[in-house]
Write a structure and sequence with these properties.
alpha/beta, binds iron/sulfur cluster
């Protein structure tokens, strides 16, 4: 797996101050994608133990709330193969820090159903994620005032509760708009 970048103090992709990893490779090809160079699985540099260790170290300070995983597409099967054991390591090292993951795949229709993304690693990878922001970027629904997502079709999902109950549980962050709760849903 290749990656395009690591941010050690990211406040845009999840709550609090976070460490973020941007992986390469994406087969969605959304119109007006903010990062089309990351569609190429060979873009950037190889993600090795060195980067894993750097991220584990960067997550250590108490003010770091957690880890965010972005793309490209983390749920392309070849990326899941590398990310699943890494997320396991993060959760074992820092059980109190949260993991956010952004995916263009829909949780119920694709990650939990037969699709080109679903593979032998998918269920385990999902088990390490606290918040999943799902759905492709839709330029017709783009809204710069949305918090933590690019278009209003994307959902900020509380994953453990959703997997436990079988019903989609949206995060309270899904209701936030310009930093305030929406008046009408
Ligand atoms: S899923 Fe994300 S990285 Fe992939 S094409 Fe869509 S916006 Fe771009």
């Amino acid at each position: 797996m290749n990656y395009s970048g690591i941010k050690t103090h990211d406040v845009a992709n999840g709550t609090g101050v976070r460490v973020s990893l941007f992986v390469s490779g994406c087969t969605h090809h959304c119109k007006d994608c903010f990062n089309p160079e990351t569609w190429d699985f060979n873009y950037g540099n190889e993600f090795t133990k060195k980067q894993e260790n750097e991220i584990i170290e960067a997550l250590a300070p108490s003010y770091i709330k957690g880890f965010s995983l972005l793309g490209g597409e983390p749920f392309e099967p070849s990326n899941q193969k590398v990310l699943t054991p890494f997320l396991k390591r993060i959760k074992e090292t820092y059980p109190d820090k949260t993991v956010w993951c952004y995916s263009g795949y829909l949780l119920d229709e694709e990650l939990l159903s037969e699709s080109r993304a679903r593979c032998e690693f998918t269920d385990e990878m999902l088990s390490y994620i606290d918040i999943l922001v799902d759905g492709e970027f839709n330029r017709d629904l783009k809204d710069l005032n949305l918090k933590f997502r690019g278009s209003s079709n994307q959902r900020i999902i509380e994953l453990p509760e959703t997997l436990k109950t079988g019903e989609i549980h949206l995060s309270e962050e899904n209701m936030k708009y310009l930093g305030k709760a929406r008046q009408n849903g």
